[in-house]
Design goal:
The chain is of the alpha/beta class and about 240 residues long. It folds into two domains: about 160 residues, Aldolase class I (TIM Barrel); about 80 residues, no CATH class. The chain is built from seven helices and nine strands; from the N terminus they run βαβαβαβαβαβαβαββ. Strand 6, helix 6 and strand 7 form a beta-alpha-beta unit. It is globular. It starts with a strand and ends with a strand. It binds flavin mononucleotide. Flavin mononucleotide (FMN) binds next to loops.
Protein backbone atom coordinates (compact mmCIF):
# COMPACT_ATOMS: atom_id res chain seq x y z
CA UNK A 1 0.00 0.00 0.00
CA UNK A 2 1.34 3.45 -0.88
CA UNK A 3 0.45 6.81 0.70
CA UNK A 4 0.87 9.63 -1.83
CA UNK A 5 1.09 13.28 -0.77
CA UNK A 6 -0.62 16.17 -2.46
CA UNK A 7 2.81 17.83 -2.27
CA UNK A 8 4.26 15.15 -4.59
CA UNK A 9 5.09 16.16 -8.14
CA UNK A 10 2.43 14.07 -9.85
CA UNK A 11 -1.32 14.05 -9.50
CA UNK A 12 -3.43 11.04 -8.43
CA UNK A 13 -3.91 9.82 -12.01
CA UNK A 14 -0.16 9.52 -12.59
CA UNK A 15 0.19 7.50 -9.40
CA UNK A 16 -2.68 5.20 -10.38
CA UNK A 17 -1.12 4.64 -13.82
CA UNK A 18 2.28 3.93 -12.28
CA UNK A 19 1.32 1.55 -9.52
CA UNK A 20 -1.05 -1.37 -8.98
CA UNK A 21 -0.90 -1.45 -5.18
CA UNK A 22 -3.66 0.14 -3.05
CA UNK A 23 -3.16 3.91 -2.87
CA UNK A 24 -4.05 6.51 -0.25
CA UNK A 25 -4.23 10.16 -1.29
CA UNK A 26 -2.84 12.39 1.50
CA UNK A 27 -4.16 15.95 1.34
CA UNK A 28 -2.52 19.14 2.53
CA UNK A 29 -5.28 21.59 3.48
CA UNK A 30 -3.04 24.60 2.74
CA UNK A 31 -3.56 23.79 -0.94
CA UNK A 32 -7.06 25.16 -0.55
CA UNK A 33 -10.37 23.32 -0.25
CA UNK A 34 -11.09 23.40 -3.97
CA UNK A 35 -7.88 21.61 -5.00
CA UNK A 36 -8.09 19.20 -2.06
CA UNK A 37 -11.68 18.29 -2.89
CA UNK A 38 -10.90 17.86 -6.62
CA UNK A 39 -7.95 15.58 -5.87
CA UNK A 40 -9.85 13.59 -3.24
CA UNK A 41 -12.77 13.01 -5.61
CA UNK A 42 -10.41 12.12 -8.46
CA UNK A 43 -8.67 9.64 -6.14
CA UNK A 44 -12.02 8.06 -5.33
CA UNK A 45 -12.92 7.80 -9.04
CA UNK A 46 -9.53 6.21 -9.72
CA UNK A 47 -10.19 3.49 -7.14
CA UNK A 48 -7.87 4.65 -4.34
CA UNK A 49 -8.30 2.71 -1.08
CA UNK A 50 -8.62 5.81 1.12
CA UNK A 51 -7.95 9.51 1.38
CA UNK A 52 -6.26 11.26 4.28
CA UNK A 53 -5.17 14.56 5.72
CA UNK A 54 -1.70 15.40 7.02
CA UNK A 55 -2.63 17.43 10.08
CA UNK A 56 0.70 18.05 11.81
CA UNK A 57 2.21 20.69 9.53
CA UNK A 58 0.79 23.65 11.43
CA UNK A 59 4.14 25.37 10.84
CA UNK A 60 6.12 24.41 7.73
CA UNK A 61 8.89 21.84 7.87
CA UNK A 62 12.34 23.37 8.42
CA UNK A 63 15.40 21.81 6.84
CA UNK A 64 18.41 22.89 8.89
CA UNK A 65 17.80 26.60 9.46
CA UNK A 66 15.74 27.07 6.33
CA UNK A 67 12.06 26.91 5.53
CA UNK A 68 12.02 25.55 1.97
CA UNK A 69 10.50 27.72 -0.72
CA UNK A 70 7.16 26.82 -2.23
CA UNK A 71 7.38 25.25 -5.68
CA UNK A 72 4.17 27.14 -6.53
CA UNK A 73 5.12 30.77 -5.89
CA UNK A 74 8.79 30.67 -4.80
CA UNK A 75 7.92 32.18 -1.38
CA UNK A 76 8.71 30.47 1.96
CA UNK A 77 6.19 27.71 2.57
CA UNK A 78 3.35 28.38 4.96
CA UNK A 79 1.82 26.04 7.49
CA UNK A 80 -1.88 25.51 7.86
CA UNK A 81 -4.39 25.31 10.67
CA UNK A 82 -5.64 21.83 11.52
CA UNK A 83 -9.00 21.36 13.15
CA UNK A 84 -11.49 18.54 13.46
CA UNK A 85 -13.65 20.51 11.00
CA UNK A 86 -11.18 19.45 8.28
CA UNK A 87 -11.94 15.81 9.04
CA UNK A 88 -15.70 16.40 9.01
CA UNK A 89 -15.34 18.33 5.74
CA UNK A 90 -13.29 15.57 4.10
CA UNK A 91 -15.89 12.98 5.13
CA UNK A 92 -18.41 14.97 3.07
CA UNK A 93 -16.21 15.06 -0.05
CA UNK A 94 -15.77 11.31 -0.56
CA UNK A 95 -17.22 8.06 0.66
CA UNK A 96 -13.75 6.53 1.11
CA UNK A 97 -12.24 5.95 4.55
CA UNK A 98 -10.53 9.11 5.87
CA UNK A 99 -7.09 8.67 7.44
CA UNK A 100 -5.68 11.32 9.81
CA UNK A 101 -1.87 11.57 9.90
CA UNK A 102 0.19 13.34 12.53
CA UNK A 103 -1.52 12.33 15.77
CA UNK A 104 0.87 12.34 18.77
CA UNK A 105 -1.36 12.14 21.84
CA UNK A 106 -4.54 10.79 23.37
CA UNK A 107 -6.59 14.02 23.30
CA UNK A 108 -6.03 14.59 19.59
CA UNK A 109 -6.75 10.92 18.92
CA UNK A 110 -10.11 11.11 20.69
CA UNK A 111 -10.99 14.35 18.88
CA UNK A 112 -10.15 12.79 15.50
CA UNK A 113 -12.20 9.68 16.23
CA UNK A 114 -15.17 11.81 17.33
CA UNK A 115 -14.89 13.83 14.11
CA UNK A 116 -15.23 10.65 12.05
CA UNK A 117 -11.64 9.59 11.27
CA UNK A 118 -11.52 6.00 9.97
CA UNK A 119 -7.84 5.42 10.81
CA UNK A 120 -5.08 7.32 12.59
CA UNK A 121 -1.39 7.55 11.78
CA UNK A 122 0.76 8.23 14.83
CA UNK A 123 3.59 10.28 13.34
CA UNK A 124 6.05 13.00 14.25
CA UNK A 125 6.61 13.59 10.52
CA UNK A 126 9.94 11.80 10.70
CA UNK A 127 11.15 14.31 13.31
CA UNK A 128 10.95 17.11 10.74
CA UNK A 129 8.46 19.46 12.35
CA UNK A 130 9.34 19.88 16.03
CA UNK A 131 12.73 19.62 17.69
CA UNK A 132 12.66 17.44 20.83
CA UNK A 133 9.27 15.95 19.96
CA UNK A 134 8.53 12.54 21.43
CA UNK A 135 9.30 9.58 19.22
CA UNK A 136 6.16 8.36 17.49
CA UNK A 137 6.72 4.95 19.08
CA UNK A 138 6.60 6.56 22.53
CA UNK A 139 3.27 8.24 21.71
CA UNK A 140 1.76 5.07 20.24
CA UNK A 141 0.52 3.34 23.46
CA UNK A 142 -1.30 6.50 24.59
CA UNK A 143 -3.05 6.82 21.22
CA UNK A 144 -3.94 3.13 21.10
CA UNK A 145 -5.46 3.42 24.59
CA UNK A 146 -7.43 6.54 23.65
CA UNK A 147 -8.81 4.94 20.49
CA UNK A 148 -9.83 1.80 22.37
CA UNK A 149 -10.01 -0.39 19.26
CA UNK A 150 -12.64 1.77 17.52
CA UNK A 151 -10.45 2.33 14.43
CA UNK A 152 -7.01 1.11 13.28
CA UNK A 153 -3.93 2.97 14.50
CA UNK A 154 -0.86 2.99 12.26
CA UNK A 155 2.69 4.00 13.21
CA UNK A 156 4.93 6.22 11.07
CA UNK A 157 8.36 7.77 11.73
CA UNK A 158 11.61 6.09 12.60
CA UNK A 159 11.03 2.60 11.20
CA UNK A 160 14.53 1.46 10.30
CA UNK A 161 14.40 -2.31 10.76
CA UNK A 162 12.10 -5.29 11.02
CA UNK A 163 12.63 -5.15 14.79
CA UNK A 164 11.14 -1.64 14.81
CA UNK A 165 8.07 -3.01 13.00
CA UNK A 166 7.67 -5.80 15.57
CA UNK A 167 7.91 -3.24 18.40
CA UNK A 168 5.23 -1.07 16.78
CA UNK A 169 2.91 -4.05 16.31
CA UNK A 170 3.55 -5.14 19.91
CA UNK A 171 2.49 -1.68 21.10
CA UNK A 172 -0.79 -1.90 19.20
CA UNK A 173 -0.14 -0.58 15.68
CA UNK A 174 -2.10 -2.36 12.95
CA UNK A 175 0.58 -1.46 10.39
CA UNK A 176 3.57 0.82 9.90
CA UNK A 177 4.50 3.38 7.26
CA UNK A 178 8.04 3.71 5.96
CA UNK A 179 9.37 7.04 4.66
CA UNK A 180 13.06 7.67 4.13
CA UNK A 181 14.23 4.04 3.85
CA UNK A 182 12.11 3.85 0.69
CA UNK A 183 13.74 7.02 -0.63
CA UNK A 184 17.18 5.59 0.17
CA UNK A 185 16.25 2.41 -1.69
CA UNK A 186 15.22 4.45 -4.74
CA UNK A 187 18.43 6.47 -4.53
CA UNK A 188 20.61 3.37 -4.35
CA UNK A 189 18.97 1.07 -6.91
CA UNK A 190 15.62 2.44 -8.09
CA UNK A 191 12.69 0.00 -7.85
CA UNK A 192 15.06 -2.87 -7.04
CA UNK A 193 16.42 -0.86 -4.12
CA UNK A 194 12.91 -0.42 -2.69
CA UNK A 195 12.26 -4.14 -3.08
CA UNK A 196 15.52 -4.82 -1.24
CA UNK A 197 14.54 -2.53 1.65
CA UNK A 198 11.32 -4.50 2.14
CA UNK A 199 13.11 -7.83 1.78
CA UNK A 200 15.54 -6.79 4.52
CA UNK A 201 12.68 -5.61 6.77
CA UNK A 202 10.80 -8.88 6.20
CA UNK A 203 13.85 -11.03 6.97
CA UNK A 204 14.56 -9.00 10.11
CA UNK A 205 10.93 -9.29 11.24
CA UNK A 206 11.01 -13.06 10.75
CA UNK A 207 14.24 -13.29 12.74
CA UNK A 208 12.91 -11.18 15.62
CA UNK A 209 9.64 -13.12 15.69
CA UNK A 210 11.45 -16.45 15.70
CA UNK A 211 13.77 -15.35 18.48
CA UNK A 212 10.88 -14.05 20.59
CA UNK A 213 8.68 -17.11 20.03
CA UNK A 214 6.01 -15.40 17.90
CA UNK A 215 4.84 -17.83 15.20
CA UNK A 216 2.45 -15.34 13.62
CA UNK A 217 1.63 -11.63 13.77
CA UNK A 218 -1.21 -12.32 16.23
CA UNK A 219 1.42 -13.64 18.67
CA UNK A 220 3.23 -10.27 18.70
CA UNK A 221 2.06 -8.66 21.93
CA UNK A 222 3.49 -6.19 24.38
CA UNK A 223 4.36 -9.03 26.75
CA UNK A 224 7.52 -9.48 24.64
CA UNK A 225 8.71 -5.92 25.43
CA UNK A 226 10.68 -4.49 28.32
CA UNK A 227 11.03 -0.79 29.01
CA UNK A 228 14.09 0.80 30.59
CA UNK A 229 13.05 2.74 33.68
CA UNK A 230 15.15 4.32 36.45
CA UNK A 231 15.92 1.44 38.77
CA UNK A 232 15.78 -1.28 36.13
CA UNK A 233 13.87 -2.73 33.22
CA UNK A 234 10.15 -3.33 33.56
CA UNK A 235 7.89 -5.58 31.56
CA UNK A 236 5.19 -3.59 29.79
C1 LIG B 1 11.58 14.68 1.84
C2 LIG B 1 10.34 14.38 2.64
C3 LIG B 1 9.14 14.91 2.21
C4 LIG B 1 7.95 14.64 2.94
N1 LIG B 1 6.75 15.14 2.49
C5 LIG B 1 5.62 14.81 3.15
C6 LIG B 1 4.35 15.23 2.66
O1 LIG B 1 4.23 15.88 1.64
N2 LIG B 1 3.23 14.86 3.36
C7 LIG B 1 3.33 14.10 4.51
O2 LIG B 1 2.30 13.75 5.11
N3 LIG B 1 4.52 13.70 4.98
C8 LIG B 1 5.66 14.04 4.33
N4 LIG B 1 6.86 13.61 4.82
C9 LIG B 1 6.90 12.83 6.06
C10 LIG B 1 6.70 11.37 5.72
O3 LIG B 1 5.42 11.15 5.19
C11 LIG B 1 6.82 10.51 6.96
O4 LIG B 1 5.94 10.98 7.96
C12 LIG B 1 8.22 10.47 7.53
O5 LIG B 1 9.21 10.52 6.52
C13 LIG B 1 8.31 9.17 8.29
O6 LIG B 1 9.50 9.04 8.91
P1 LIG B 1 10.68 8.10 8.34
O7 LIG B 1 11.23 8.84 7.16
O8 LIG B 1 11.56 8.08 9.52
O9 LIG B 1 10.12 6.74 7.98
C14 LIG B 1 8.03 13.86 4.12
C15 LIG B 1 9.25 13.33 4.52
C16 LIG B 1 10.40 13.59 3.80
C17 LIG B 1 11.71 12.98 4.27
Amino acid sequence: MMFVSQAAKFNPKDWRDADKSPLVFMAYMNRGKEEVSDYAKLSEDLGFAAVGITMDTVRPVKIGDEVPLSTKDGKPRRGHKSTTKDIEWMKQQVSLPVVVKGIMGGDDARAAVNAGADALVVSNHGGRILDYNRAALEALPEVVDAVGGKIPVLLDSGIRSGGDIVKALALGAKAVLVGRPVAWGVGAFGALGVERVFTIFTEEMQRVMTMTGAARIADVTKSMLFRDEPGGAHAL
